[in-house]
Amino acid sequence: MRANPVEYEIVAPGTLSAVLSLLAESPGAWLPIAGGTDVMVQYSAGILPARKLVSIWNLPDLRRIEVSPQEIRIGAGCTYSDLRAHEIVNREFTLLASAARWTGGIANQNRGTLGGNIVNASPAADSLPALLVYDAELILVSARGERRVPYSSFHIAYRKTKLAPDELVLAICLPRRFSRYHAHARKVGARNAQAISKVSLAALGRLAGGVVEDIRLAMGSVAPVPLRLTETERIVKGRSLDASLIQSAKAAAIKEIQPIDDIRSTARYRAAVAANLVAEFLDQLGAGKTGS
Amino acid sequence: MNETLHDHGKSEITFILNGQSASVHVHPMERLLDVFRRELRLTGTKEGCGEGECGSCSVLMDGELVNSCLIPVIQARDARITTIEGLAPAGKLHELQQAFLDWGGAQCGICTSGMILAACHLLSRKSQPTLDEIREGLSGNLCRCTGYMQIFEAVAEAARHGAGS
Amino acid sequence: MNTAPIVGTSVPRLEGRDKVTGLASYVDDLELPGMLYGATVRSTIPRGRIRKINFSPHINWPEFVIVSASDIPGKNCIALIEDDQPCLAGEFVNHPEEPILLLAHPDRHVLPHAAASVTIDYEPLPAVFSIEESERLSEIIWGQDNTFKTCLIEKGDVESVWENADYIVEGEYTTGAQEQLYIENNGMIAAFNPRDGVTVWGSLQCPYYVHKALMKLCCLPPEKVRVVQMETGGAFGGKEEYPSMLAAHAVLLAMKSERPVKLVYDRLEDMTATTKRHPSRTRHRTAVSRDGKILGGEIEFTIDGGAYETLSPVVLSRGAIHAGGPYYWPSIRVRAKAVATNAPPHGAFRGFGAPQSLFAMERHMDRIARVVRLSPIEIRKRNLLRPGLTTSTGQVIEEPIDLEGLLDRALELSQYCSKRREFARDNQQNKIKRGVGIAAFLHGSGFTGSGERYLGSIVGLEACADGSLRVLVSSTEFGQGTKTVLCQIVAEALGLRYEDVGIAQPDTNVVPNSGPTVASRTVMVVGKLVQSAALGLKNTLIARGLLADSYSPDEFREACRNYVSKYGPLKSLAQYQQPNEIVWDEHNYRGSAYAAYAWAVYVAEVWVDTTTYSVSVKDFVALQEIGKILHPVLAKGQIIGGVAQGIGFALYEKVVWQNGRMQNGQMTNYIMPTSADLPPIRVHFDELGNAHGAFGAKGIGELPMDGPAPAIVNAVVDALGVPFDSIPLLPEDIFEEFSRTTPRENPAHSLQGGR
After folding, report:
1. In Å, how far is A53's CA from the nearest CA of chain B?
2. Per the domain annotation, does A292 fall within a domain?
């Protein structure tokens, strides 16, 4: 443990409005901490830049899940365990349920939050590719009010988002129009549990009469941000699904992603596996199978 | 005590620990793990990695398994916490503890506190887990000595003896 | 007499209850009044001269205890085999993370920042980071030629085998560093006062190693140094020699401050600064006859020792002796050397050189099989040792070991043949390629050659006031059940109840030096001595007329109490004597290298996912002959735990190096298997007994480390039809091989001649 607690200040006002007031008073001065599964690792390593923290753990306004006919609205303070336990998430948003299942171990799933995953904005984050393909929208809240933004334009660069210094993510809204899609999610890590992803895929597709009616592909750990593979989708959408299309899709995916060499893996490996994952999904789509 | 050199910034934080009210006067950014070990002198919860990977520091907080090395103590305010010391009344072993003893679930013992609490958490949700469910439930607790198999056997045995009820 | 067997049954572990209740006391659980906390300032470069040490003006340094090399009362070294490793760097540093200064302070929270506030100006020198760079000798970093030790094993006439060979098979095999990754980090508490001297409490395997090192460092006589082992949370060799360094540091701070000092590492410091398994490179050149018999061969075995000698000569020795595997070599030459690089010194890790050389041997056997067009089974059967044949050092196999039978049994248990056929048939049309692989191997128990004789281990057994007995050994418990097994042995030897025997916590003030807890020697060597001490104690009672030849456990206790009240303390000592039949020539490496070998055949089934190039071990059979099982649950636990570490060694555990420093020194990025990664590991035993071990036991602690890696890689090669000769074998490595070679029609049966 390489941090000195006396150098830090942490407060827990207990309500959303109190937290927002604090953030409005001194925008950027207070780092919100929910479950702490990222912030506290940095703290323990002695590399957390922030010195003032405000706890948003377990705020009721952040931790509810509301279901309406059009959408599911997931509080940003919901933990992965909350997601795993929710019937609609499991039934209609299997890509998100998978991501929740393979994030860390049970203890980390009990504390890590969806909002934290979004704001931490790591390209390797487990849930973000699913949010991209589900057309997630975020409700951002501050003392100034609320605004709703598409997630696809929220994550703008490596570990950078459009979140204003006085804002929190309040909720994540997912439209309920994907239950008839084939869904497939896969995470490739160094081991079967508790691994940072080397490559991950969240995919949705619809096949009719052998033609790909719709396809949505998003990947993690292959670019500075979680990446929606729009080019690859464009090549595949509306075409007959056959072996040659799958080859084209693989080639397009390799062109579209920007993987790097890092401590966990290599760019070449990531590119090859990314292409393989896309092909695997298309194979399953063609065979009428789903898997996550 | 050696560490009360900086009194400023400390506050009173109260929670229920192993069924009893506990109150500590600490800096709110102290890790919950350190509060157990240093303030309260309950050293049964261990530190193996300091980054939430090994699970040696696992405890139950409001019925959920958590890694206490990643929790600032202020977030434990008013929580109901169980550490290994609170698992069984003095002198009588919990079924899991007995099963770990009988089946080789503990070798060096350093992962054992966290492992037993993780098993506790699993059995409270699934009283007769399959092998795969045991594997998954304990996948956040690393053991370097046993290769896990005798731990799984111990958990299955404890389940058979009704440890989950 | 108590007739219910104790040895051979899974009695409750003596040390178990405290571990499951959280009461067991590990070093970081202990706080002493007035205790300070310590930290270490370490080198940030791999090699160079220290020009200047700068203390940042922002820290109030008078609050801190600061120790440097000039504070060392005795010799600035951590005494081991050589005295070349400094306790604290003086003028030069030779590896990243080399300790330079020590700090102590009452508030442990201020130490990391303080340590980071000491900055050092260096004059860097060119550094060496691999075996090849070291061999090139363009930079001499140690001694005359960067070589800590060489050793040569010769048998028969190697020069003559090449002419008549029908095949000459060559191969080069490499293994990487591996971190022991005990879940409890290294830690030590030291206290000093001028009257009693120095006391340390720590996480450690070898109290007397620490004792010896502290005497030399502090210039103190033996009775002024006391070493106490605390409950130790895993060790695996990683706490064999390193604790001497940590103890030295804690002691220096305690001496300077005159307060107790606790020095406990966090995970990052432990991983980056302490020992790892020696990386290795083995080159085989083997002459083989048309019918698959080994005629002879040369093995060049090289290990990377890091910056200082530490235990490299002994690792080298064991690796070299095991390099020929469980096979009969009519002629062999093993040339072994340990070389220096500018990395933190590599050290003991379960297996101690044998996992490295046996990986090479077992991969090489499969290679020979392909060249000669025999199956992996057949090539082994034609070359396995049999009673009456000699090992590479000329040791005659005298016990009735049937290795062919062991192999057959392993094949049957694993369904090797039917799986191999099924996989060969199915792999073509499957994205998941499956394979099976074999490893046959041996592991010598106890110290090599004359080692046990030099140790001259002493054990004690004494009677307590209540008539119970107490074992006195320096052998430490760190998960293997040392205390339980040694008490079982005494109870069984004397016909007592298990509860009639206890054991002292290893404390050099209390226990004699029964040697280090290493080399799979505890049950076999120390256990046998304890058995002798027990019989000696019994004979003393009988000789004094206090005990009849046949007695009940309670009568025995009564006799002990009577002896003590009449004559004073009752203590029996036993000292190791090398049996006459164990003759070892340590200059020529010839003769009986070990008093006993355990034998094994492991079979691994792997699935390789060609989408992700990842390997999963799906089934694993571990069959071994171990003399006698003293405690079934403990024995099985040792095998499964060792296999798990072997699976890590093969597929997951890569140390990422940059300029001699480990870059992935956190559990997030140093990957050990979780419960979700391991298959059911099926353990089976054979028992042939052992004249030189307690109740016929052989050592088993390290044996399971030798087999998994080659069995797994052989299985991967079976699945994919391409050779892999280097571990850890990661998906990235498999991908690179895939992208080089063209896919094959029938991977399981392709033959590649010299590959």
Report:
1. 9
2. no
Is the predicted pLDDT of residue C751 greater than 80, yes or no? no
The number of C-beta contacts closer than 8 angstroms across A and C is 68
Query: Cβ contacts (< 8 Å) between B74 and chain A: which residues?
Result: 10-12, 55
- A2 within 8 A of C266, measured Cβ to Cβ: yes
Please tell me which chains touch A, using 3 or more CB pairs under 8 Å as the contact test. Answer: B, C
Whose CA is closest to A10, among A41, A37, A32?
A: A32
pLDDT at B4 over 60: no
| Minimum-distance CB partner of A105 among B9, B27, B139 | B139
In this complex, which chains have at least 3 CB pairs below 8 Å with chain B? A, C
With an 8 Å Cβ cutoff, is A193 touching chain B? Answer: yes
Burial of C36: CB neighbours in 10 Å, binned 0-12, 13-18, 19+: buried
Does CATH number 3.10.20.30 belong to domain B11-86? yes
Q: C2 pLDDT exceeds 80?
A: no
Given a contact cutoff of 8 angstroms between Cβ atoms, the answer to whether A199 and A277 are in contact is yes
pTM exceeds cut of 0.90: yes
Q: How far away is chain B from the Cα of A40, in angstroms, using its nearest Cα? A: 5
Which tens digit of pLDDT belongs to each residue from C680-695? 999 999 999 999 999 9
Q: What mean pLDDT do residues C358-387 have?
A: 98
Residue A170 lies in a domain: yes
Kindly state the average pLDDT of the residues B32-45: 98
Q: How many angstroms separate the CA atoms of A131 and A136, rounded?
A: 5
Q: Are residues A64 and A167 in the same domain?
A: yes
> Residue B109 and residue C20: Cβ atoms within 8 Å?
yes
pLDDT category, C746, cuts 50, 70, 90?
very low
Query: Cα C652 to the chain's mean position, in Å?
Result: 19
Judge whether C326 and C442 are in contact, CB under 8 Å: yes
User: C446 with C486: CB under 8 angstroms?
Assistant: no
User: Using a CB-CB distance cutoff of 8 angstroms, which residues of chain B are in contact with residue C267?
Assistant: 48-51
pLDDT of A193 reads 86
Min Cα–Cα distance to chain C from A35, Å: 18
What whole-number distance in Å separates Cα of residue A289 and Cα of residue C150?
A: 60
Is residue A81 domain-shared with residue A50, that is, in the same domain? no
Arch. (CATH architecture) of B95-160: Orthogonal Bundle (1.10)
Distance CA A79, CA A91 (A): 18
Spatial contact of C383 and C391, defined as CB atoms under 8 Å apart: no
Domain membership of residue C226 as a residue range: 31-125+186-264
Cα-based torsion angle of the residue sequence C389, C395, C399, C403 in order, rounded to the nearest 10 degrees: -50
* CB contact at 8 A, A94 and A16: no
Interchain contact A106–C (C-beta under 8 A) = no
